[in-house]
Structures are given as structure tokens and as C-alpha cells.
Amino acid sequence: MSQDEYMSQMKASQAGATQILVAQTDDVRPFARLLRGIGLKHNAVMVISNEGFEITVEEVKTLSAIAYIPTNLFQTFTYAPPDDDAPAFEISLDSLLQCLNIFGNAGSAGSGSALNNMGGKKQRRWAGEGEGGGDDDTSFSSGRGGGRERRTGMRMTWAGHGEPLSMFLQDDGKGPVTTCELSTYQPEEMMAQAFDIDNRAVYVIMKSELFRDALLDLPPSSTKITLTATPPRVALPDHLANATSSSNLRRAHKADVGNLGIKAQGDFGETQLDYPNEKSVMETFDVETEVQFSYHYAHFAMLSRALQQSVKIALQIEHTGYLCLQIMMPITKDLGTGVHMGILEFKMNALEEDEE
Amino acid sequence: MRFRTHIINIPLLHRIIRSLAALARLCVIRLSEDKVHFIVPGNENKDGVQVWSQVKVETLFSNFRVESNNKNEIWLELHLDALLKVLKSADSSINDGITDSRNATSLQDGEVSLKLNKRGNQAIWAFDIRGRSQLSGKPMQITHEINVHVLSPKRQGELNEPLCPPPDIHLVLPNLTDLRNLVSRLGTMADDVKLSANHEGKMELTVRSKNVDLTTTWDKLHIPTQNTDSEEEEEPVPADKMFSAVVPIRAMQKFLTSHLVGGVAIACICEKHCLIAYVYIGEISEAGGVLTFFIPAKTFGDDDD
């Protein structure tokens, strides 16, 4: 039976229920990549709208992650808003990722093993991972998969409240097909507060690569990350005046142009990285007074996965220390202004002074 | 009791033993004049997977001599790990001489012979790897010995191939490596998988968990024609009737390690009783040998359709 026949059969079988959502793509990778970026917990809340999906994961009150997945990641995205509440439900993010990767074409393979160590000693198991075991005996399996790149296509449907999220998956329109039904649950209430732009102390836009490299350079044994944003042209504090002249020069330069410092502290010492407000580094650097806030290293470690294959980050911090990091995915086709290929957003509170 | 032979296909033997080592520690090898049987009884692993395989002597051996007062059969039991180590060494020493000249341990004109010996009271298998050093051309010889246990006729009698009802369906499985990869991904979702198939060549693998129901479907798989002893021909089953068996995913993975052997595989479903998989060595027509895996079905509380 061809895919078309399957599709029509599927449609026929679902004819009774009108679909609230039909989303179709011939390559699940961009979708899966965004989902994996927020894979901090097993379950996520999915909200459907005309703009696409908004998928949220929350670690109670300490960290929230949202994937904004626009409709242009799909060839077809039809959404018929129901009469009652806007569609929102909780699903197993792990299972969703496992389904998307059922043919092995949406996994995290080849994403650089260094990244997988970012979680530090805990060796966190990320959502959607778990190829573990069985895949080690490649020596005999005669170069399977080598150059041939296969893509998994997907058709996702949802028929309304209380209904499962259904998916139909197949590689390049041939070979075996997989259908899955993900259970949907009543969503937990989301606790994360909105980021208050009016109370913004730091607004920085820079290339993802630089920020990601910074995170990778921080020792995994770290426990605390301190961000210091220094506005341009701040006079050198008196107590530093007697430092060596070369470090004075460097400081003077950073003080001139402004600087974002990232310091990691842990049981084995500390590491400091500086990102001066130079054209090659910062696209936007909007800091009026020097601010300094500390965060859990573990939360920062989770960001590195989300940063993979992204292009830009926007880092914003409120005067309260509440941090919002937005991660933008590359735009691969001409979409016009204001259109994006997916944004991941992380929000976290600063550590209290006495939490150290 | 005498046994000695040359091993002419070390890579194949190596792969067979690797597949078996994935599911058991011990293996019974029954040597007869024309066939070698590799047997893994069901008590060797907790999923009850059994292997009853037979390989034609000429597929693996030459100058094969086996003599005993038991129909010229010898039954041995040995540790698969020990055998695997020897075969790994032999495989890298022989290497067909064609490829991989960088392999410093590889010998020219390598040959492997195997003999049943005794060291004190302990029966052993002695492997002799002979050849010439690649560098100096001088003759080299490597000997490995592993302990084996000769089975008494009583033990032999206790080993019986499992009895199964006539299978409800036979079909040719898709590429075993693809299937292995897919099944290992299913293993992250659930413990058990339901394998179903019908006479139209449709096969389904279904897993169910709290969070997800997933079914992967293959179509137009080949249904081998059976040389049915159709005296007791019952009423024909509808071609679209699905027959199924629920088995632990771990057991499926064990059987699928046989993708190393690389042949065609045929699955039989004895509904709600077991899954039998025949993995052919070489072409089916050549009948070089077959590894037969018996995987007992689980009875599933909430799944009785």
C-alpha cells in the first residue's frame, strides 16, 4: 500500500471526527531539534494556535523553557480553533521525541559528544535519548546508512479535547509506516512569570556560537554562574588602580566599550570569560548600569543543548535578576520579515544572595 | 571419541557465536557427521529464548572427522565468551589475507584447525592457527585451548527442541539490521512488543505504554509458499486476519543480534504461544544452515484481541 493510500485510509478512518489540527512535514528534524532543546523534563504542555505550537517545560519556579514552533516548519498546517478553550494539553515530551525518531532520522546523533558531558557528573539523560546498548556492534553491519540520507516525514493530527495526539511517520514516503497516539493530559498550570521589558537591566544580542563556546569552556564541576554586565565608559574603580598595567589596560578597554563577563565557580576554582561590546561580538549591547547576578550552573548547562545549530541569542535580565534567554534557529528559506524558524526561550530566577 | 577439523569460514563462525553470546553464557554444540548444531536451551536466559540451529559441515569446515560410539556424535557444552575470544583472535589472524594489510597480527596463508583433546581429566578444544608472518615470512603458530564439557547421553536426552503448535503464519522479515535498530528504539518506550502479521504480507510491531501507543507497519512482505501436508486442510483463514504474539522487547533484541549473520530471516507466529525466527546462513536455496530462535509469547493481561 502506498503512502497516499495510507493517508487516505487514515483520513477516512478519521472522517468521523473533524480535525482541530493537521500539521504535515517531509522532514521532522527541525521540529525534533526544537523539542530536544527544551527536553529538560519528561512532560511538556503543548498549546496550539494559528502561529503554530508553543511547547513549555517547567522546573517548578526555577527554570522554564518554551519552544515556539512556527507553522512554516510544516508544509501544511491547518488549525480550526475549537469553540471552547484554546487547545492546551500535556504530553510526554520523551515519547513525542521517541516517536519522531522511530526511524532513526531525528536523533541527537552526531551532535558532538562534548556537549553531552555538559550536564556534569550527573550524566543527565535527555528526553528522547536512550539508544543505549545494542548499537555498538557496527563492525559487522556492513556500512549501513553510510552516505544515504533518509528523512522521516510526519503528519500530525489532533481531534480535540480528550483526544490523543496522532502521528503518522514514514521515511521518504516508502518503507514501513509508524502510527502513534500520544496520550494527552489536563495541563498543569504554568508558574513562570512573564519577562518585564520595562524593568530590563541588560539586553544583549550575540552570535550563538560565542555563547555556546563560552558554556563549553566552563568546567562541568562548576556550581554557580555569575553574569556581570558593565556598561560602556565606566570609570575604573579606585581599588583596582594599583593592579598591573597590562591588566589595567585590558580593564580600561573593557570599561570603555562595555563588557559581559561570565564567571563560573565551583569546588575546583573559578573561570572567567569576557565578552567585550565589540562589533565582532555583540550585535546589540544595551546596559545602563553595571549589574551582577548569579545562577545555578546546572541550569546553564542545560542551555548548551538548546544552542546547537542556533544562530543568535538574545539575553535579557531584569533588575530583579530574572533572566530570559531567547535562542533563534537559522532561517533556511526566504520568509520575509518577522518570520522565524523556531525560537527557544529559557527563563530563570537569579540565586538569592544567601543561596551561595 | 575423536574430533578434528579445519575451520574454513572463521568470519561466519565468529558471527554465529557473537549472535549466540548475546543471549547466553553457555552453548551446547552437537557434532554429527554432516551437521553441527548450536543449541542454547531456554533456561540460559530469563526470557526463555532458545536457539536450535544447524549448520552444514561444509559451510564452516573441511577435513571434518567426528567419531564416537554414539552414532558418531559428540555433544559438548562450552562457555561462549571463551570461544568468542579465540574466534576473535583467529578472525584477526586469518583475515583472508586480502584486506587490511595494516593488521600486524594477520598471517599469510593462515589456517585454523580444531581438535578435541584432553588435559588431565579436562576435555579441551585446541585451536591451532598457523601461517607465515607478514613481515618475515617465517612460519608462525598460535594455539588456544578452551575447556569443554562432554555431555552424557542422559543430558543429551534432556535437551529437547520445544514443541510448538503448527504456526499460524510464516513470513519473510524485513532487513534484520533495520528491524534491530527499530526494535531497540521501541525498547525505550515499553517492555513488550506485539508482533502481528497476516497472509497479505502485512506485519505490525505494536508497543503500548501509559503515554503512547505506537504501531509500525510493513506491507507486502513475502509469504513463503509452504510445502503443506494438506491432508488435514482446515477451512482457509481470511488473508487479512492478523495473528499475533506478545514478546519481551529484550528477547526480540537478543534474536535480532543475529542480523550479524546477515541472511534472510523468516518469522513464524504461533498465536499466543511463541514467535519462531529462522535466520538463514547464506542463500536459502544453498541451505548452508539455519539458526532457529524460539521466543515464548507472554500472556498479556489487558491485551487479548
Automatic annotation (TrEMBL), chain A:
The principal localisation class reads nucleus
Q: Does the keyword Acyltransferase apply?
A: no
Q: Indicate whether Acetylation appears among the record's keywords.
A: no
Look up and give the organism this protein is from.
Dioszegia hungarica
Top-level taxon: Eukaryota
Q: Which InterPro entries match?
A: Rad1_Rec1_Rad17
Q: Where does this polypeptide localize?
A: Nucleus
Regarding protein family, the annotation reads:
Belongs to the rad1 family.
Which chain positions lie within coiled-coil regions?
none
Q: Which GO terms describe its biological process?
A: DNA damage checkpoint signaling; DNA repair
Q: What Pfam families does the record point to? A: Rad1
Q: Choose one Gene Ontology CC annotation of this protein and give it.
A: checkpoint clamp complex
Q: State what protein this is by name.
A: DNA repair protein Rad1
UniProtKB/TrEMBL annotation, chain B:
Q: Does the keyword Transcription apply?
A: no
What keyword terms does UniProt attach to this protein?
Nucleus, Signal
Show the Pfam families listed in the entry: Hus1
- What are the record's GO terms for cellular component? checkpoint clamp complex; nucleolus; site of double-strand break
Signal peptide interval: 1-21
Q: Where in the cell is it found?
A: Nucleus
A GO BP entry: meiotic DNA integrity checkpoint signaling
Q: What family is this protein classified in?
A: Belongs to the HUS1 family.
Its recorded name reads Checkpoint protein
